Request: fold
Amino acid sequence: MPIIDVITEDSGLAALWPAWQRLWRRVPAAWPFVSPAWLQPWWEAFGTGRPVVAIAHDNGELLGVLPLYRLEDKLLPIGVGISDYFDVLLTPDLPADTAAALLASALEAGDTSRCDLPELPPDATLLHTQAPPGWHDQSWASSVCPVLPLSPKPAIPKGMHRDLRQARHRADRTGTWRIERADAANLPVLLTALFDLHRSRWQARGEVGVLSDPRVRGFHSTAAPELLNAGLLRLEAVRLADEIAAVSYALLASDRIAFYLSAFNPEFSFQSPGTLLLGHSLEQAFREDRQEAHLLRGGEAYKYAWGATDRFNTGRSFIRA
Reply:
C-alpha cells in the first residue's frame, strides 16, 4: 500500500503540480479535467487557499491524487462548477482500496461534516468507493452528458448529413471559407473571438452566459495555452470570407474528444457555421481513430440531431454520521 498524505496548504499544493503533471501523463484514460493544465489555473482563479488534496506516493513518486478543497463548511472538488467530469487520479497498478484510503484521509483532514462530489461520470472510480467508517453517503442524478460513438463509424442521422452538405454548399457560395486551428500564434485571437461571440449570443437572449464572469474568462485565458502545450486543447474556428463565423473549444483525452464550448455569429446563420465546424471536428476525430465524442453537460437539441445518446453523471455526498 502506498503512503497516504494530505496537503492542506497552498505552498504544498504549489510544490505538487510538477509531480501531478507526470502522474497525469501516466494515466492515458484520464480526462483533462483532472490535469494540472486545467486545475492549476482553476485554483489560481477560484481557489480558497484551503486545499485538501489527498495524495498516494511511494519512494518519492506520486501515484494518486484526490483534489478537494474546503469551502465554508464542506469539501468540494477542485475544478467544481466549470468541470464536466470529476474523479480521483490513480495509476492503474495501485491496490484496489487506494481510492477509499485517499477519500478517508481527505474527509478527516478536511475537518468538515460534509463532502459533495458532483459530476462523476459512469466510469468514475469514486462512484464505487465505499464511505469510510463514521460517514454515510447519498447519491443523486447529476447532469446529462450526451455521447456520440465514433467507432466503427459515427451513427450520424441522414438528416444531419443532408444539413451538413447544405451548409457546405452555402459556405462555398460565399467565395472562400476555411477551418482554422489554434496554435501558439493565433490562440489569443481565436480565444477572444470565442469570448465575444459567446457573450453576444447570451446577451441577445437577455441571459447571462458562463463567459460573462471575468474570472471564468481569466481562467480560460490562463488554461488554454497550458492545455495547448500539453496537446489537450483543440480550438478551431470557421472563417467565412475571412471573418470568424464560429469557434469550437474541445478537449482531447486519449481516444476521445469532448466539445466543451462553442459560439457562432448569428449574421452567418444561413451558412450554419456551427454545423460546418462540428461536422469537420467529428470527421477529423474519426480519422484519428477516436472512439467517442462527448458533447458534455446539457440536453440541447442539436446534440441529438447528430445522433448522440444520453449518459448521466452522478453526484455523491459523504456526510459525517
Observations:
- The longest strand covers residues 61-71.
- DSSP finds eight helices and 14 strands in the chain.
- The CA atoms of residues 238 and 308 lie 23 Å apart.
